[in-house]
Amino acid sequence: MAETKKDIKKKESIYLNINKAWVFNANPINATSKATTSSWSEWHLFLTELDQKPKKTIGAFQKKATELSKKVMDLNNNIPTNFNIPQIKARVSILITKLRMLDLFIHLDNIPEQKVIVLVGEINEELISLQKQMDKIVQKSKIPMEAGESDLIKMLDTTRAIPNGMLNKNPPRIE
Fold it and tell me: How many domains does the chain have?
């Protein structure tokens, strides 16, 4: 009986600590993020899911973590073309990793509450980083190209380079 009461008290303590720390920044931090939510449905659904806080039990937090893990995996499926670059993909991958870790930790028998609390903060940092990167991409796309810049970019493209065989019409012969 005493051990059961002690276990219940410990679980209540873990629940209260996780409940207090479970605060995600699901609101877009800039205009770019807001505009992205309207065109990228997976991003919008993920932020909506992130904004809803579970109530009452650890089981609710476990279900929410599983659902968030599923939603974040969907982000990779349909990235808008202007954001389909390595910088965004890397940040999405980090976000996936952090949320999957959260899902793993919260489903353990002995929940490491400190790790869960730290992960919530790290997930918020990654969300901000992703949104700032999206804003940076949009800002860079607004900068007009200078005269001749497109030709210079074409010259840097290695797929358009002259093959080595074309340069040397008389290859060396071995006798």
Answer: 1
